[in-house]
Amino acid sequence: MTFIAKDQSVQDGDPVHLISFVQGSLTWRYALVPFTVSALGETWVPSTISAGAVNQTPEMAKNILSMKFPRDHEFARTFLWSPPDQVTSVTMYRGHLGDPDNEYITTWKGRVANARADGDEITLECEHIFTSLRRPGLRARFQKSCRHALYGRGCNLDQETFAVAGTCTAVDG
Predict the structure, then answer these.
(1) 70 to each of 53, 80, 117, how far by Cα in Å?
(2) pLDDT tens for residues 131-146?
(3) Which domains does the chain have, with CATH numbers?
(4) Where would a tag sit more exposed on the chain, N or C end, judged by fewer CB atoms within 10 A?
(5) pLDDT tier, 159 (very low <50, low <70, confident <90, very high otherwise)
(6) 62 phi/psi in degrees, rounded to 5
(7) Distance between CA 3 and CA 46 in Å, rounded?
(8) Average pLDDT for residues 166-171, to the nearest whole number?
(9) CA-CA-CA-CA torsion sign (121, 128, 15, 11)
(10) DSSP secondary structure string for all residues of 38-82
């Protein structure tokens, strides 16, 4: 039975959500069910993460996904005292337990943007991957001479005009 068939079925569907956090070479995989799940060739450990609703809004800056962790959650605590130097990407998957095809679709992808502690829980605010497309990229560096490689594409200097003739008088070595 395909993912779509299980997803649309009233009695055969048994949905499970998986969340992957990747930070450089480190990866954390959590299943939002009370038992270990083997999916996508990996083992997903049970977690009590509470993920907010995935919304689609015209303004990407407002399209934030909040995830709540218990205060003692080892992964979430790393964001409180000294946030990591590397970007932490987040990928959410949705599939069905017992699906013989083991199909999981990506339902959300982004990165951890902010963390805060509220009482006995830690909230990670994640922004959608497309928010980075709205940001300006690297600006061109302008220097006294110009921003192009000397005599390269975009450089208007004529190499022959600045050539200096020379004669080799000795070779050593």
Answers:
(1) 18, 13, 10
(2) 766 555 555 555 555 6
(3) 3-134 (2.30.110)
(4) C
(5) confident
(6) -90, 0
(7) 22
(8) 90
(9) positive
(10) EETTEEEEE---EE------SSGGG-EEEEEEETT-HHHHTTTSS
